[in-house]
Amino acid sequence: MNFSEVFKLSGLLCKFSPDGKYLASCVQYRLVVRDVHTLQILHLYTCLDQIQHIEWSADSLFILCAMYKRGQVQVWSLEQPEWHCRIDEGSAGLVASCWSPDGRHILNTTEFHLRITVWSLCTKSVSYIKYPKACQQGVSFTRDGRYMALAERRDCQDHVSVFVCSDWQLLRHFDTETQDLAGIEWAPNGCVLAVWDTCLEYKVLLYSLDGRLLSAYCAYEWSLGVKSVAWSPSSQFLAIGSYDGKVRILNHVTWKMITEFGHPATINNPKIVVYKEAEKTPRLAPGRLAFPPPRAAAGVASPAETKYEIASVPVSLQTLKPVADRANPKIGIGALAFSPDSYFLATRSDSVPNAVWIWDIQKLRLFVVLEQLSPVRSFQWDPQQPRLAICTGGGKVYLWSPAGCVSVQVPGEGDFQVLSLCWHLNGDSLALLSKDHFCLCFLETEDRVGTAFGRPGDHT
Amino acid sequence: MGEWMTVTDPDLSSDSKNICQYTSETKMSPSSLYSQQVLCSSIPLSKNVHSFFSAFCTEENIEQSVSYLDQELTTFGFPSLYEESKGKDTKRELNIVAVLNCMNELLVLQRKNLLAQENVETQNLKLGSDMDHLQNCYAKLKEQLETSRREMIGLQERDRQLQCKNRNLHQLLKNEKDEVQKLQNIIASRATQYNHDMKRKEREYNKLKERLHQLVMNKKDKKIAMEVLNYVGRADGKRGSWRTGKTEASFFLRNEDEMYKILLNDYEYRQKQILMENAELKKVLQQMKKEMISLLSPQKQKPRERADDSTGTVISDAEEDAGELSRESMWDLSCETVREQLTNSIRKQWRILKSHVEKLDNQVSKVHLEGFNDEDVISRQDHEQETEKLELEIQQCKEMIKTQQQLLQQQLATACDDDTTSLLRDCYLLEEKERLKEEWSLFREQKKNFEKERRSFTEAAIRLGLERKAFEEERASWLKQQFLNMTTFDHQNSENVKLFSAFSGSSDRDSLTMHSRPRQKKPQNMSNGSPVCTSKLTKSLPASPSTSDFCQTRSCASEHSSVNVLNITPEETKPNQVGRECANQKWSMASRPESQEGCYSGCSLTYTNSHVEKDDLP
């Protein structure tokens, strides 16, 4: 495992291009585009203000930089560095900006969700979509880029509009049986739209592309409901994480629940492997002292290295007592993600913040639990293989695969706190983002992976 | 009363009646004791009475007193004191005999009365104590009654309190329920109000939004604009088309078409998948059916033979089997036509299989039960013996492995001397080596001993052979002699016949070894079994010259204490097997340098003892 040198970064804005060739990162008001392999700067664009959001177009030809404070969006072209485009939303303000899947239109959401402006880069046309709903996930594109579903609120009633992305025509418009719609998401095959209600009510609705209600699912009533939703890449399963600390998995044939994954704080089943991150005690065995002390040891502030230990069951995980009298209590399934081959599901229960639960979807049971020393900030699956990268805001990145797991210290001067990470398209590198810096982590290629992930409990 | 009856004589029945009356009186009267005494004392001769009598009769009034006494006595039913007068005029004479008889009777009566009185007194005492006891009991019971009554009152009180509490709680519950209801109502009203408010607010918000939108839009905001250097081409290379009313409709239709196409594709894909899955499942089902049939077909013959209940199903199955192949193509048809048949047949097969399995289970359980009933004890014993044997064997094997390992290590250590690690190992093994050397020397000594023994054994065997020959000759002569004297010594003869049978050659020896076999199985019971064994041995070898050698070997065995118990068998006595046995012993010694010493030495000691004891028997 190799690490690149550390580059400057601001606002955690660092993204691989969709074709995997480039890496865009922001430093204040500058946008830097590098080659992924050489990491040399290919282009340097200067924006008008501090960049708050960047996004690659789907064809990797353009990058949009949003400056919400100014209400402006600047678009840069990789092919023609001199080409530029600036969109000003004027007094309407700007709170969100994104590409349409064709990479030629930009959707800007104005302040107060007054409207969504669709700017075309091909023609001078501008279209408006009124009544977008201000919610957690109000816009969803199908994976093939053909359709866009938009959550709307009209006359105190939730609606969903399905647009054809090629010409922004309204295809379907239907009202949903939700109290206060919280999010929508297309299934990866683009035929089913999952709609879920606000956390006050457990309600998940499934609509066909043509607006028919396929099914409605409600696990329980009178309690806080859905917290997170994820489709499996095969569109076969819909995983719903809720505030009761359970993940429920619906199937795509009957849309009924197949199974329920609880997240108990103690694990008794001896079949479940529990990896516990533990601080490595520095062993000063005679003969093992390297004569020139390693750099990590020389650094004064270097944190202790850690390793994974296989805990023997029963294991009790650290739990967090939720504060009852505050909004957004730290309970429930805050994050869940399917592996690209749909074989595994990784979840995080917010009441057990240090643990990542990995479920075997083939056997529909808990497979592995990773317990970190500090709360898990985010995790992401390798797009190519079942390999999960986890960061906890410390100086380490953690990787899990069915063969085992490793904890890797990010080298470098000072403290590199990994706040976020994102995988490269082909899964052989990983961008690690801290508050002010980022670096790339190159993983071994296929033939050397075997040694890196040789056996469970092989700790680096 | 009954006691009284037993005490009184039958000829004193009248008195007894009186006394009965007394006792009944005494029982009635409250001051019983005293009066009885008085009444009783009227009959016996107490001091007072004596003095009274002395006053009663004086010189002067003998006549009167006699007559008085006579009267009294006659009234009590005694014969008269006077002689029966012949004539009326004649003075009646005092009949001394009658007087004495009367006195005697009175005395007897007196004694009896005294006895009775004693009895009554003891009875009285008994009754008194009984009374006391009963009174105590009564008092105790009364106390108990009191306490239980108190308890009952307490419990009642508690019950009342609890009921009271319960009532209160019920009241509270009702209140709470009411409150809950109230609160629910409030919540509901609040919720409706909230919803209403929310809607109102949202409407207001929407209005404001609308207004804001208008303001933002109407401002003719110059700022809302896009600056583009030049427009880029569409990603798909097409040119943007202008929307007109006409084209819009067609666009919409095209979009619809596309959407439905996508949906259709998806459904087709899913249908295909489901079909594939179905086909797989059908295949599995079919295979299962086939396997079931094949599994059950050998089974079918049996029930056809013995049972008549399942023949119908069997026949139908056979028919189905016949039609199976022709129908196989039907699986590919739509499910509905085949489904019923398939499920039915599978169900049927399954039922048969189930019943079959159940039957088997029953059989197994029966067999188990029978087994338990028949040979529970025996099998257990066997088991124990077997386990013991196996444990012993395991131990032997372990020890052998250990020694082998040691030898191997030794060899290795000697083989790679140059290596430092081996040196280290050598150091480590030095002690062990020394020990091994000691053991080796011991073994050698033992080996020598054994060889000596072997030699002596062979010698003994030779001697034995010679002796046997001599003995047989002697026996022949002796038999001859006996035959001649048969008529004179009968019972001696019978003994000799027994002896003859004991000595009669190889067949008997076989029986001996047969005897020894079962004992080999349980070496722990050696000491128990040994006397029998040895007695037989000694019988078979009456004046064996090798007994001393025997003893020697035994003692040797006890010394070294590593002799396998299994080897201490009567077979050893056979001279032609001695050599092999010795070899065996050696082997066992080599294999087990340290074994359960006490047990074996004990065994062998008992062996020798018994041997010595029985030695002079014949």
From TrEMBL, chain A:
InterPro entries, per the entry: Centrosome-WD_assoc (IPR052778), WD40/YVTN_repeat-like_dom_sf (IPR015943), WD40_rpt (IPR001680)
Chain ranges passing through the membrane: none
Leader sequence residues: none
One cellular component (GO) term of this entry: microtubule organizing center
SMART domains: WD40
Domain of life: Eukaryota
Annotated PANTHER family: WD REPEAT PROTEIN 8-RELATED, WD REPEAT-CONTAINING PROTEIN WRAP73
Protein name as annotated: WD repeat containing, antisense to TP73
Organism: Lynx canadensis (Canada lynx)
Record gene name: WRAP73
